[in-house]
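Here is this case:
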Amino acid sequence: MKSEKKKMPASACRKAFPGLSGVMFGALMGGVLGAVMLAGASGPAKAQTTDLVSKTHFRVCADPANSPFSNKDLSGFENEIAGVFAKDLGLPIQYEWFPMAIGFVRKTLRENRCDVIIGFAQGHDLVLNTNHYYTSTYVLVTKPGSPIEDVDHLADDRLKGLTLGIIAGSPPATHMARNGLIGKAKPYKLMVDRRVESPAEQMIADLQSGAIDGAVLWGPMGGYYGKQAGLTVTPLLKEEGAPRMFYRITMGVRQGELVWKRKLNSMIRKHQGEIDGILTAYGVPLVDDMGHGLKTGQQ
């Protein structure tokens, strides 16, 4: 079996971690369920994986210090969304806390310590993805009244010669390099333990102090911290070429647990309006499924 590090696609780190969720978004291969996955879609295999889901608690895998996504003090928007689902199920929430870094999926979901990851980027095989419940994009955070306050794409000539903060290795870095902006950029770490270090918060502090002219961040983080600081947050929806700047965020369950996935999909549809309200309250920029513009109802 390949190592977790080799198996992890770069996009998984961007949930937020981008986080990326993220995404997004940490995680990895390995564990006892590999044998179940190899068994295919036979009836007995489905029964075994479905039986792993707790009937007495809504068991959530989460990072204990990953604001605004999740936090041990339950102050994250994923905590609020988990509360909505737990209430619908009529079950108490039980958290399995683990830093969202290499080993996150293996040490939580795969070891049957919990049954769902509330935020996980769509599109890879580390988990079985539910339907997505929001789509967001990278943003440019600036000071109100700044000459670049209304810049909405990284090819804008007004960014030339400025110092922009960027999470190293994140999708916007490629676009910045393409547009000649990397030379003066200030990089911040991608993979950190948020219990002891927060690159997004440091980037916002540097923007406020004047150390950088703008901060390029994953939407949920830029929106949340930018809103708290009274800054301008502009979605970057006009970038041309790869990589894309928007990502669909799902919930993640164990491979093979199709019944559980369908149950979660049903609750996502039922509570979509409430979910949107929670995300909007946290400043998360919600865009349409194809990343063409803001979702109806967002300004």
Summary: The chain has two domains: 4-134+246-281, 138-235. The first strand starts at residue 58 and ends at 62. DSSP finds ten helices and twelve strands in the chain. The domain at 4-134+246-281 is CATH 3.40.190.10 (D-Maltodextrin-Binding Protein; domain 2).
